[in-house]
Amino acid sequence: MRVFYSPRYGLALPGHIWPTSKYRLVAEHLKADIVEPGMASWDDLALAHTSEYLDTLRNGTLTAEEIATLELPWVPGLIDGFRVMVGGTCEAARAALDEGVSAHIGGGLHHAFANHGEGFCPLNDIAVAVRVLQRERGIRRAAIVDCDVHHGNGTAMIFERDPDVYTFSIHQQHNYPLFKPRSDLDIGLEDGAGDASYLDALADALPKVMESRPELMVYVAGADPFERDQLGGLSLTKAGLVRRDELVIDAGRQADVPIVVVLAGGYAVDVGDTVDIHVNTIRALQRYGAQRLKRVKE
Ligand SMILES: [Zn+2]
Fold first, then answer.
1. Is 174 annotated as catalytic?
2. Most CB within 10 Å of its CB: which of 93, 113, 137, 248?
3. What is the distance in A from the centroid of ligand 1 to the CA of 34?
4. How far apart are the C-alpha atoms of 137 and 260, rounded to whole Å?
5. What's the CA-to-centroid distance between 190 and ligand 1, angstroms?
6. CB–CB of 123/49 below 8 Å?
7. Tens digit of pLDDT for each residue in 108-157?
């Protein structure tokens, strides 16, 4: 299974809660065929973002208010780093279509809207990748399975009026973002939900997602539902998160739908926990990919 990653994701964000070192640490922990992606073109970005917004990013003319909404320091190389991250999701999604499974050690920037960035997400790699594959590969339907602890507001809004892209978000209801545009299916869980109620709700929801008959599943595998996450409050254990990964991957397996994993959030007190959770997700996908390959060859 090909895994996409660039050292450019390790942006220095002084004093910020986002541990951008996690990408390198995940890459180091995995035994994987790692491929470095190229930058997404402005034309590709324009498939999901307005040209006015992209101009402000290109020219560095975001207002102080827009930068505050983005909640990122405006450091040199920021936008180019994120353009590579969008490129990584596009390349991983192509690889998933070709080979059945692929992972991106990056991406999951689900809070970016067509016309503005929010919550650490200047660009929505998920939306761009779906649009790129619809254009390049002629796929029509895709499903987003967003298991980050935060609602996938940007993705939901971008695909709000698109019947071909099924958006599903399972998240902590009383958490960022305050405004949660409707996904095709939203499950907002109570604070401290824990493994059992989370996994029950997920298992109930996945058949509904797969009824949309997607030709690609984007699994947004946030590590922040974890019990020791600083920005999440769903109290899942590592074992519960492994079970979550298995449920999502199994839903894709049963429907024989290509799966691409993107990492999204993860702010555990100990970055090692965030890395473990992401590594577990990618390993589960690698195991499934190996079984699938064996089946195809037989
Ligand atoms: Zn999150």
1. no
2. 93
3. 25
4. 15
5. 16
6. yes
7. 999 999 999 999 999 999 999 999 999 999 999 999 999 999 999 999 99
